[in-house]
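We modelled the chain as a single entity of 435 amino acids. Its sequence is:
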Amino acid sequence: MTSNLGQNQLTPEHVQRVLQAVDDNFEAQLRFTQDLVRIPSLREQEHTAQDFLYEAMHKRGLSMDRWKIDVEDIKSHPGFGPVTVSYENAFNVVGSYRPQRQTGRSLILNGHIDVVPTGPVDRWVRSPWDPAIVDGWLYGRGSADMKAGLVANLFAFDAIKAAGYAPGAPIYFQSVVEEECTGNGALAALLRGYKADAVIIPEPEENMLVRANVGVLWFKVKVQGRPTHNREMETGINAIDAAYAAMEALRKIEAKWNGQHKCHRHFEHLDHPINFNIGKIAGGDWPSTVPPWCEFDVRAAIYPGTTADQARAEIEACLAEAAADPRLGGLSPQVEFTGFYAEGYVLEEGSDAENTLRDCHRIAFQSELESFTTPGYLDARVFVIYGDMPTLVYGPRSLDIHGFDERVHIESLRLITKSIALFIAQWCNLQSPVE
């Protein structure tokens, strides 16, 4: 039997028991995080790490749901991102906790399992898959972005149980794929029917709450040249030179959009919130031949309130106008959208979920919770825009995410885990004792 402790009636004893339980199990939490970092979960290779998490959730007595994302199920949704790879190994995992009797508010604890490529491994101090702990930091690809957060979700739940309580509302532990490229994993989870009264996503956010973030588009630009022998170079069209002309045209849009930052709420103080990153480039066939082709991949940011379709139209028009540049020889660049096709979002202030997190952060950190605007993509846009759920992106300090020697700050992670555990206790309500 369980008894209800009362919604929002946590006593100092309840708080102390939960905080102590996080501390008591923190070494095990770090070991678990290291084990997860050791499993490379690059795009199209996420399934082994998902198997690992499936077993961990299953051992905790959660009801398990593991499914392969079917593009046909989600492609008609406005939040869908175009797919250019196989989804053969694109599995989502959700573990569900449900109390015998609901006395609190439900919660989604979400995180992504996919990580970005390592780059040249000889530029790392040690292997990207060697999760060493050095000077208070846990290293490794995905350690911060965001396997530490995924594990914190589970171990915050463990702390509630270890303290002798049980949450009084459903909790859905989500480990999704595709956050680094389309957002389709979170979208698939939403469309599978998972909804709750609040969402927490412990991305590496420097112990702060994200107030707003940009939308993102991925696209490939293809330009054509006219090959000739290099002795007659002036009679050809160099596709690599043409690609640079197309890039310069895109930089004009980037500068234009950045110049509008004062017109967008929460972006007024950022001088350069809109980043167009040329992330890949390839072209040509032979050093002594004027190259007949070149293509490059772009990640472009957009403001909340701008739709992906609106941004796409301006990008395509800009590149069509660039054909007038002599380097393009009158040929318009071709554009293919290849991944993110996502709008940005704003987390409106004053929700019960945010106020609860502020209280929990104050207890764990002994300081006030700060919020900020990020020019990066977050899966929260799925839950905020399409699920109408207050979504709190809030997580530990990090260094060099997406770079060499990525790492997460250990003490920050401990305190974030305490905040999440207290949030579960306050938001979902506690039932006691567990028998």
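As a brief sanity check on the tokenised model: The mean pLDDT is 96. The domain at 3-213+345-432 is CATH 3.40.630.10 (Aminopeptidase).
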